[in-house]
Amino acid sequence: MKAPVKPGEIISLSIEGVSHQGWGVGRFLGFTVFVPGALPGETVEAEVSLIKKNYASGLLKKVLSEAAGRVVPRCEVFDRCGGCQLQHAEYSFQLEMKRKTVQDALSRIARMPEVPVHPVLGMEEPWGYRNRVQFHVSYSGKSLRLGFFETGTHQVVQGAGCHLVPEIFNRMAYFLEKELSRHLELGQSDGNQRPLKHVVFKTSRSTGETAVIFVTGAASVSGLDQVAYSLVQAFPGVVSVMQNINTSAAPRIFGSQWRLLAGQETITDKIGDLVFSVSPPSFVQINPVQVEVLYRKVLEYAELKGTETVIDIYCGIGTISLFLARQASRVYGVEEVEAAVDDAKKNAALNDIKNCEFQAGKAEEVLPRLLQEGICPDVAVVDPPRKGCAPEVLDAITKMKPSRIIYVSCDPGTLARDLRVLNEKGYSIKEVQPVDMFAQTVHVETVVMMSRVEK
Ligand code: SAH
Asked: Looking at residue 328, what is its pLDDT?
């Protein structure tokens, strides 16, 4: 279809949905138009800014009729910062938008419009929840700033006032901006050799233990030891300060080399009554309040009686495995990152859990091997990264014939794609439960329970 609009043209349109970036989506004479800042249910006036083959984008000029859920964003840089996307919508409205996103993906991609999606399980206090944040570093002359990138740019907006992180992160960012500017040599701060590229903060809400990771572009950065020392002096909760060396230009945040600058390497966290030791490169779920809600759903959907064998694929530091282990006979965990598998083993021991076995390797390689070895789980849990499960993984799981598959997903699009495959291979969807792990942002987490159709 030829675009019925020209750049610069002012159009009015009704917003029907929300894109995966959190932008309002509407149609103008049948042509798709994205309008950042507009909400579903609104009629808006937009200035056409960009035209592509199948869609156009417009700048929001005026809201002609407001959605009932529109609110004033709490953060003053919300318009520019890429950290969150939905602060202009009331929380209950955000949750309903997310439910529709999942429902939409099931209709369009999985072609299962009839499957109901439960209302999203949300937070009581949807602010300050993040236990981890990765701030970018930007330089200007002899000083530097920590913060999120401005949407679509590599310019840092702000770090020292984010509403999604705990207070201590904002205070540390503010402290470090001054200390780093004072102690680091910021002469040549271009390209990948930039002395400091990112700063990662991690904390445990339950133990208060906090870790700081400086990701640097070179092995030796003079002044960094001094900054690490003053950081632990100023913040008693900081038990670990590490340097990660990443000289590559690839978007991956961590390089392979680590160096301890102060304190110890790991922090201790708790989920429910389980204790976890977390080493710096390992993944942990970002919302410590909602992670319990999420894992309880997984446990509920697993319907364990104590005799089952469970496989937990993409298991990270073994959190779901250990959460299920006490109600199962045996649990196998599979994870690519070796440090995470080491953590998982340590965590099993820490909690005196003896019926878990963890395997390091890519799921697409480990699973076919376990299948060959004759491992037949009753329940399979998968919790893949955004790109979803590799076809080999889905294939091996269905050949193992578990009676239930529990799919935990952070991307409704790849979730729907994989559910369709699992459905074709003999599994039907029983429950679809989104859990809000990322309030104020457009991200959606979903737990799905599927069961095997006996032929
Ligand atoms: N279930 C865990 C981790 C989920 S995040 C939790 O709830 O905390 C996804 C995990 O998959 C990460 O730990 C990542 O390292 C791992 N991963 C990514 N690709 C993988 C692959 N191809 N094979 C196995 N694990 C992989």
From this structure: 98
